[in-house]
Design brief:
Order of helices and strands: HHEHEHEEHEHEEHHHEHEHEEHEH
Structural class: alpha/beta
Helix content: 25-40%
Largest sheet: 7 strands, mixed
CATH topology of the largest domain: Aspartate Aminotransferase, domain 2
Shape: globular
Length: 385
């Protein structure tokens, strides 16, 4: 599919990168399940030598994801954390990173338990007011790492304002776009240099693949990241690449339903007497709602709630009592999930820091799926009363 930028999102989701197979005419990209490729003579081949470096199925997926973010380049990884790891490997000992105080627990763990040991300094700050970032910029600052919406309190970070700060100080701005997906938000258009996705989530969409992706426009940045990608080897296999391509074909349809269901459930929960607090960026009283409205197409299917007066035991009981929502880690699949961040996705963050960011013991995170919304609301009614 040439000139994919001229097509609408749904058309790109279905067709970008997925040219008919030249040998058979197959409309679906084949699964090139091979580790190596025969060469005509030493060093002379058809663009493929060893599958860690390049694989045709993975290349088709990378073209597809790049098109969804209106970008030139994409690299896919064997996990979301593999993609984060690759970005941080752009840095050197003594470099500094500014990132948010409400961050996915896996990213926090990698930053503090792995890369801090190599002399990279991380500042975990409140980024909801972008001007706060400038207070932490030093001559050693190299990277701003932003999640928006954040996991799990749905903080909204102004990507455009962060992009201006990054440009002014010659910094790289990387944005974790997992919660929004490229259907709802395109950070490169707002000044980001790198967009990261846990492809496991909305892009794959069916809870059957673990994968990550980095998307960028800058050729030099792409070359640096591609070198690390190939050298360090966190590359996904062709079967996973095929599954994600298949999942992306319905991304626009799924995201419409996630957003519709998310709104209905958020409105139901906000009025419920057993809910002390609700985090969903679609509410006008949600902090930075106007920024979310400006940089997002809709507000997504991720919701977090704080249960009124519930201790840990009661919170566990509620989390384990649903029939349609499943108690599980991850998010973004067609099925609805419920999660207890303090003991699941964010358990690696010290309690004091976790609670300072709002991740209290009676907080639950909902990933609203695409089931019939009436059944989801009935499930919530049956458990919450």
């Amino acid at each position: 599919m040439s000139n994919s930028k001229s097509y609408k999102f749904g058309t790109k989701a279905i067709h970008a990168g997925a040219d008919p197979d030249p040998s058979t005419g197959a409309i679906m990209t084949p699964i090139f399940q091979t580790s190596t490729f025969v060469q005509e003579s030493p060093g002379k081949h058809k663009g493929y030598a060893y599958a860690r470096g390049k694989n045709p199925t993975r290349e088709a997926l990378q073209k597809n994801i790049a098109a969804l973010e209106n970008a030139k380049h994409c690299l896919c990884f064997s996990s979301g954390m593999g993609s984060v790891d690759t970005v941080i490997k752009l840095l050197r000992p003594g470099d500094e990173v500014i990132t948010g105080d409400d961050l996915y627990g896996g990213s926090y763990r990698m930053f503090t338990k792995v890369f801090a040991n190599y002399g990279i300094k991380f500042h975990f700050i409140n980024m909801t007011n972008a001007s706060n970032i400038e207070k932490y910029i030093t001559k050693n600052t190299k990277l701003i790492w932003a999640e928006t919406p954040t996991n799990p309190t749905m903080q909204i970070i102004d990507i455009e304002a962060c992009g201006k700060i990054a440009k002014q100080h010659n910094l790289i701005l990387a944005v974790d776009n997992t919660f929004a997906s490229p259907y709802l938000q395109n950070p490169l258009a707002l000044g980001a240099h790198i967009v990261m996705h846990s492809v496991t989530k909305y892009l794959g969409g069916h809870s059957d693949v673990v994968m990550g992706a980095l998307v960028m426009d800058d050729d030099k940045l792409y070359e640096q990241l591609a070198f690390i990608h190939n050298s360090c080897g966190a590359t996904p296999g062709p079967m996973d690449s095929f599954l994600v391509m298949r999942g992306i074909k319905t991304l626009h349809l799924r995201m419409e339903r996630h957003c519709f269901n998310g709104r209905k459930i958020a409105e139901f929960l906000k009025a419920h007497t057993k809910i002390e607090k609700i985090y969903w960026p679609g509410f006008t009283d949600h902090p930075n709602h106007e920024i979310a409205k400006k940089q997002m197409k809709d507000f997504g299917g991720m919701i977090s709630i704080v249960l009124k007066g519930a201790d840990l035991e009661e919170t566990f009981r509620i989390a384990s009592s649903f029939k349609v929502f499943s108690l599980a880690e991850s998010l973004g699949g067609v099925e609805s999930l419920i999660n207890h961040p303090a003991t699941m996705t964010h358990a690696s963050i010290p309690k004091e820091e976790r609670e300072r960011a709002g991740v209290v013991d009676n907080l639950l995170r909902l990933s609203v799926g695409v089931e019939d919304v009436e059944d989801l609301i009935d499930d919530l009614k049956n458990v919450l009363g």
